[in-house]
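We treat protein structure as text, and this decision shapes the records that our systems exchange. This encoding replaces a full spatial description with a residue-level series of whole-number codes. Below, we set out a record of this kind in full and without editing:
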Amino acid sequence: MAPTTATSTGPVWDWAAGHGPVTGALSATTGALALATTGAATGMPAGWALAAGAAGAIGHTVTSLRERLAARTIAMRAASWLLGAGWTTWAITSGPLTWTALGSLATLGVGIGAAARSTLLHEEARELEALAAAERQVSRELSAERRAIAAEWVDRIQRVCGGITLRVLAVEMWPTGTGFTIDAELPPGGTTYERIAQYAPQLSADARLPHGCTATASQGIDQGRVLIDVTTVNVLAGEIEYPTDYSPLSIHTGLPWGVRPDGREVRVYLREQCALVVGPTGSGKTNFVHDVLAGFARATDILTWVIDLNAGSAGLPWVRPALAADGGGEAVRPGIDWLAASYEEAMVMLDAAVRVGKHRKVAYQDLMARANTDLLPVSAQIPQIMLVIDEGAEILTSSDPKMRKLAAKILEVIRLLRAMGLRTVLTALGATGSVLGNLMIRREAKARVCLTGGEVEGMDLSKVFPGARGLKVTQAPYKGAGFMGTPESPAGLFKSWRIKPNQIADIVRATSALHPRLDAESAKAAGPDYARRWDAARTAWMHGTLTAAPETATGTEETPKRPGLNLSAHRDQQPPTAPTGAVDADALAAEFMAQIDAQFGTTTEPGAGTDDGQPPSTGGGLNLSALRKDREELGGPDWLPTAIAAIQAAGPDGMKPSAVADTVGRSRHAVRAVLKAAAERGELVYRDRGPHSVYVHPDHA
């Protein structure tokens, strides 16, 4: 039976609340009447009431003085006690129930209530006045500090900047306590803020600012105003951890890439802009690339494609959590959508990007017409593709024929596909004329970052930020510190966040559900090259990064086990049988054979003839027949029927290779090779789902 809720129809009394003017007066008069009636009936001496009233007046006076109440309030409280005690004494003597006594008591109550109300209002006014006085005092002190700052900097600018006299309108102290901003009006005569900006180093030196702190001038609210940001605390020296807030972001609302010296986030808007990141070795450029990829991973309308010809090191940390989760029961999508670590894969990726961009121009004409725009409306349903190309600027300037073909594809993406939502983030090792000489980079990459790390050679900031004044490499000699400029935020000092592999893995898992999927039209244009980007043959090199730490051989710690294939069929001495669950040498050899056959197609069995009846060729391929059994007769190793039965029992959902490996007690690599062969024979059906691909029995396919 459900409990019933009691409802109240009358007023609710708060017995813990204090008395107000009305309830206080009512309580005092009823108390006096009750005491007088009781005293008259029992013959109580009348002086007792007067003594009690005097004691109450003294007690309230003492407590009021401690609370520092106004003299008016103290006098009202003391008078109320004495008047109440006097009436009670008179009423005990003459009788409290006469009309004269009752009327005088009512008059006394009204007077006490009115006096209490008046003193209460007076006390509230005194309290508000005290608060206002404190605020005025703080304001006076702050205004005095600001006036001193304003006067000091007006004098400094006049001395250092060639007689320019400013009129300071406001001084804003930064909430982080690391500096302040001066808003000033430029003198008449056509003086611009650039006149002051070019003296930034001299102003910083004249102000005796700490190393890493600057005084930079930028444009104000109009062309006759200037803003001067003065940093007084060096926040660039230490590490700043990447925020643990992994909330969703959007390409339209900006992506955070670091913080300014005043603690403000620097947001970059890349819907129409490309980006250029410059940083020599040791400057923190790779860490900053991970900051960029973290922002892309949190965006609900961005797909990230990464090209890193240096073994894919920039993108691997964003893929490994998904690889490691294989068979773990938790669906984790990679933090990036595609990773190319070789020239061939990079060409495949760029070709797919060009096809996607050109197809979007045709397929979404109706959508853009309805939205009345010539830019593709990027959203979670039609995501923007961001190509992050590590050392891409060097690729564009390379004289190698292969790299020149790659550079042509990159420039095609930059030049033609802005409106269709394909943009690039290129990195470079130095800010030199050869790297930044390409007009396309200078024109399209308006979001620019230069991480200096204190390196002076090959770091010409005027080439990265043309027109910016007062920027020096020596202002940011720390790893992860440098300069950033965007169309929305002028070039200035900034600090990138420090992000470590464990946090990258956390971000990949936390943002797995946020990643959009490539829209159907774009996926159709990308074709099989995109659909099979996570195939085992194209990602086998990634799985090698999950190898466990080396273990020592059984018996002695001095003799480490050697990784690789164990071709024991060619040995006179056979090693002892491996325990259940260890790597199966026969299965590994079968996998090795399959790879050799697939690449060279020259391995044949001894005694087998060619199609034209000629003896087999002896000039090509490896012959590992000593390790081979007759697979046509056996149909695979002896554990394959068990695996097929388990896959059949799994139903339409199928099983991952890792789950099959756990079921039959074999290594994942061996199981993948045998299952692939079974699928080619039609015994199983392979469903390609990237890191979550499964094998399904034909009965459920």
Summary: The two ends are 52 Å apart (CA to CA). Confidence is low (pLDDT under 50) at residues 1-8, 548-585, 598-634. Residues 304 and 336 are 5 Å apart (CA to CA). The chain has four domains: 24-133, 161-231, 255-541, 579-604+620-701.
